[in-house]
Amino acid sequence: MTLAKNLRKYRAVYLMFLPVGLYVLIFNYVPYYGLVIAFQKFSPFLGINKSPWVGMANFEFLFQSGDFFRLLKNTLLISLYRLVFGFPAPLIFALLLNEVKNMLFKRLAQTITYLPHFLSWIIFGALMISFLSPEGVINKLLAGWGYHPVEFLIGPEYFRTILVVTGTLKEFGWGAIIYLAALSGVDPTLYEAARVDGASRWRQLWHVTLPALVPVTILLFIMQLAYILDAGFEQVYVFMNPTQYAVGDIIDTYVYRIGLTGSNFSVAAAMGLFKGVVGLFLIVSTNKLVKRMGHQPLW
Fold first, then answer.
1. Fewer CB within 10 A of the terminal residue: the chain, N end or C end?
2. What are the beta bridge partners of residue 40?
3. DSSP reduced 3-state for 6
């Protein structure tokens, strides 16, 4: 079938796709042109075409800066903590929820847990700050048990833990939807055959449920690994204060300060391009590794 015949036959489908295609093109691909300012001394008054070219000078400035490795370390540590502690949370919750037989309780629990996903970090962060403040619920509970109040929001010792815990609380319910959808596609006869063979609930989980979730788990892992240098600007910006810069200042907050606040757009673009290249390398290499291990890759 030629392209013209295909367009005529499925014109309704292409018309429905057109707004989405235009959105992706305008907001995801056209902005790539702006990456050239990473190699310029960009001036808004001169524009991209007339700003002078400086080659790799912006990248040299970044890599020779005393802040670069501190920013990279903080970003990687926060992202790795989220990967280790936050990534399994939706899977575990989905497995637990899948065992619930009361449909009313199951739907209620699912609705309550994925509701925070729709709240902005301004709102959700304010709620968490109210819980963690010296006069908050947690410190009142500690005082009731005879402990002294803890300054969770001041100082660096609790900052990364707060980021991981609050980030997991906000997103684990939403992330569980994908696993629950995958579980709904498992053939019930597999469980029946396992029960006939005398498999316990644990054995059914180990030999039927988890293997069915391997493809979607690998897919989500690859996608999350690609964002390992994206430690979440909004969340960090909400919780961070100057006393926590040593452990909480990440690449995104640095880009915000130097790019938008300091008007050094070229260095900010260079840092963004560096993040993109690293993310591309990670997603391609991980995808190849998964393929070599015999699992279903992303492409």
1. C
2. 53
3. helix
Q: Report d(CA 72, CA 271) in Å as an integer.
A: 11
H helices of 65-98, in order, are: 68-81, 88-98
Which listed CATH number (3.40.640.10, 2.130.10.10, 1.10.3720.10, 1.10.1370.30) goes with 66-292?
1.10.3720.10
User: Cα(194)–Cα(202) distance, rounded to whole angstroms?
Assistant: 11
- Distance, in Å, from the CA atom of 208 to the CA atom of 192, rounded to the nearest integer, reads 11
Exposure class string for 61-96: b at 16+ Cβ within 10 A, else e: ebeeeeebebbbebbeebbebbbeebbebbbebbbe
What's the pTM value of the predicted model, to 2 decimals?
0.84
For residues 247 and 45, what is the distance between their CA atoms, to the nearest angstrom?
A: 36
Instruction: Count CB atoms within 10 A of the CB of residue 117.
Output: 14
At residue 258 the predicted structure's pLDDT band, cuts being 50, 70 and 90, is confident
For residue 150, pLDDT over 90 is answered with no
Residue 85 C-alpha from the chain's centroid = 13
To the nearest 10 degrees (0 to 180), the angle between helices 68-81 and 57-64 is: 70
> CA–CA separation, 67 vs 251, rounded Å?
10
Cα distances (Å, whole numbers) of residue 62 to 109, 117, 156, 273? 46, 34, 25, 12
Whether residue 1 is predicted with pLDDT greater than 70 in this model: the reply is no
Q: How confident is the model at residue 91 (pLDDT cuts 50, 70, 90)?
A: very high
